[in-house]
Structure of Beta-mannosidase B:
Amino acid sequence: MKSVTLDNWQYKASDSDKWSNSKPGDTCEIHPDLEFNGEIPPLFEDDNERHLQWIGEKDWEYKSTFQNDGGFSTYQLIFEGLDTFADVYLNGELILSTESMFIEYTVDVTGKVKEGANELRIYFKAAIFIARDLEKKHFKALGFNGESSRMQIRKAQYHYGWDWGPNYMTCGPYRPIRFIGYDYKIDDVYVKTTIKSDVVDVEVESDIIADKDLTFNIEVTDPDGSVENHKATVHKGKNSTKFTIKDAKLWFPFSHGTPYLYNFKFTLVDDKVVHEIQKKIGMRKVELIQETFDDQEGTSFYFKVNDVPIYSSGSNWIPGHSFQTELTTDDYEKWLQLMVDGYQNMIRIWGGGYYEQDVFYDLCDEKGILIWHDFMFACGQYPGYKEFIDLVSEEVRTQLKRIRNHCSLTVFAGNNEDYQVAEQRGLTWDKDDLSGDYSKTNFPARTIYENTLPTLMKKYLESVPYHPGSPWGGKESADPTVGDMHQWNVWHGNQEKYQDWYRLGGRFVSEFGMEALPSRKTYEQCITDKTELYPQSYLVDFHNKADGFERRLALYVIENIKVEGLDFDSWIYATQLMQSECLGYAYRCWRREWRGDKKRYSSGAIVWQINDCWPVASWALIDFYRRPKLAYYSVKRESKPLGVGMYRNQWKKPDPNLDVDQKEGAPFDYREVHYNIDIWGVNSSLTDVEGELKVDVYNVTTGEVLDSFSENVVMKSNQTTEFVKEFKITNKSPVVVYSRVVKDGTIICSAADWPQPIKYLKFPDREVKITVEDGQVTLSTNKPVKGVEILLENDNFIHDNGFDIFPGDGQVVKVNNLKKTDVVKINYYQKGY
Ligand code: BMA
C-alpha cells in the first residue's frame, strides 16, 4: 500500500484566471489563503469581518497535482473533509460531487488515474446560496444564532456567526486528501474490549480487502513496554480476532487514575507486510447511570468509568479557530493541557462546530480527559426529509468509524438545544409519540435524534452511551431532576442573581456561563486604532457578539462589584472578577450535591465555554490567544480533587406584627438578618483523607479575628462530607469566613466565604507584600484581601490567579519560566481604596 497526501495547493476565484499559491500545508480554507497572500486585510482585526462578507458569496477553485508511480491493482482518493459543496475533477473528469462537510468520501479512481502526474481540481460553490435555495424548497427553520437557512446544510454551523464568533462562510479542502494504491488493505479496524475486573476480553473486528486469505498480525504493547503477539488468518470482508489481556492496566480519566494506553500494531501480510496500521487503545468501560433516588425526585445522571462513579467537572469546547486549518498540534496540546492543569476532567464538543481533528481525540486519550460529544446540530429546527437523513447517516457512519477506537469518548448527545428550540418556539412535540418517524410533524429532526442516531450508535459504537440531546430528559429539557440541563437563567433568561446558583442546579449542568472581557493585551492585538481601547468603543463592542451584552455585563458587575472607574483596565478587571466569583460559586454549590452512593444528586458542571475562535469578549475562561481570565482559576480551585465548600445561610426572625407577604421582596422589610455557615469538604480521590479543619472569622473592614475554631475531619472518598452545620456568625459587622484543611502542617485545601454582594465591602489599610523568585511569586498580607491578580509583561503561565489571601497564610504561586528579575505587578479588589 502506498499513500500520498496532496499538498502544494493553488486557489483562484471561479471568475478569475489567476491562480495563487495556498498557505503551505496539506489542508486549505479560502479565508486564511487570501490573508496569507495579502489579498485581504487581517481577518480578526478591527471590524474587517464586516467588509469581508463577499468571500463567502463567491465560488472558489483549488487544484493540486500528485504523482502516481503505479504498481498496484486498486487506487483510491480519500477526501477526509471538503467544505461543503464541491465538484471534484481528476484530470478534467468529474469524479465526485459533495454535499456535506462532515462526510469522509472515498472514490475508486482505478482506471482513471494516470501513471505520472495527475491533476485534481475542486470547484467549491458558495454554500450560502445553496442553503437559501434549499430553505425556499423545504421550509424556513426556526432557531437561535446565524441565519435560518443554516439548518438546511451539513456545514459547521458557527461559520454563520454565533454569539461569540464572526460570520465567515469559508470553503476549501479543510482536511487531508490522500491518494492511495494497494493490492490488499485493512479497510477498517475496531478494537472492542470487555472489562472483567483485571482481565480484558479483546475482539478485533477487521474489514479486509483482498481476493485471498492473508495473515493478520496484532502486536500489543502494554503501557510498560511488554509485547504480545496474536496471529490470525483473515479473508475478504469482516473478520473477528479474539484474545484476552491479563492483569490489564485500565484507562481512567486523570482525575481518578492513570490514562494507560496500549499500542496495537496491525499488519496484513502476504509474502511481506502489505499494510500496517497502529492505534492507541485504552481499556475501559463507560456507563451513564440514571437511577431513581430514595429521597428525591427524578433520576441521577452520572458516569461510571470501570465501575468508579465520576464527578464531571469541565468545560464546553467550541472550535478553537474560525478556520480550523489554522490550528496546529501544538495548539491542541496546549488547550487540552490547560484542561488538565485546571483539574477539568470532561470536555464537551459542542454541536455547532465539527467532528474534531484526530489529534484532539488522541490527546484526550493520552491525557485522560473524558469527551462528551454532541452530534453536529445546534440551536435549530433541522429538516427530516429522506435525503437529509441519508446525508446525516453517511456523516455519522464515516465519523463514528473514524473515531470509535478512542477510549476518551464517554457519551454522545443527539444535538445542542434543538429540543429547547422546539419547546420555546412551540413546535409539535408529543412526547408520548414514540413511533420513531416524525417527518410529518414540524419537529421532523426528532426522527434523527430518537431513531437514526441511536440506531447508528448501536451499530457502530454500542459501548458508549447515547443521550438524545443536550439538554434532554424529564418533562421538558430544562427539568432539573432528570437528564442534563443548560442553566442560562443567569446571564440569559430571567437574569437571576448568581448567588442563587444553589437552587438553579440540576442532575448534570452541561452549560452555564458568564461573560468577561479578555485582557488588554488581547484587545491591543486585534484593534489597530489605539483611541478605541476603552470599554464602550465601537471596536471593543464589535468584538462582542452576544445579544444585549452591554446590559447584562453591566447588570452583573454593578450588582456585585465596586467598579474603580470606567477606564479600560478597571472595567476588564471588574468583569473578570465578577465572572470568576460567579462561576466559582456555581461549582462550589453544585459539587456539594455529590453525596455518595444513591445520593449523587448533582454529578457534573460543564461551564460554557473554555475557549474562543477569535479575539472576542465572551463566556470563555481563556481567550483566543490562550490568556486565562480570572475565572479559569476560580473554576480550577473548585475542581481540585480536595476542596472545602461553604454556604452562608440567612434568615429573619418572624415578626407577629408584620404581614410578611406584603413586605417580602420589598426594600422596606427592615428586620434584622441573621447568618450562619455550613462547611463541607469534597474529595474526588479514591481514598479517605484526614486533616484538621481550621476556621477563622474576620471582620472584613478592620481585619480583626472575631472567632476561630478547629476540629479533626475525615474527607470521605469520592463524595462530599458535611463538616459544620449552621455555624452562627455575627451580623454586626461584615465578616469573611476563611476555612482550610491542614494535614501534616500543609494546607491541602482552603476557601473563603464573603458577605454578598461584595460591592458593599471596604478594604482600608491593606498591605500586600510580594517576593519574586525564579519560578514563583510569594504573597502575604496584613488583613484579608480579595481577588489578587498577578500581572506579567509576558504570557508565562501563572498557576493560580485572582485568589484571596489571609494573614499568616501567604500564597506561593508558581509561574512558568519566571525570572527573579522579571517585572511582576499585582492588583487586587479595591486596591485603590
Ligand atoms: C448556549 C450554547 C450556544 C451559545 C451559548 C451562549 O446555549 O449552546 O449556542 O453560544 O449558549 O449564548
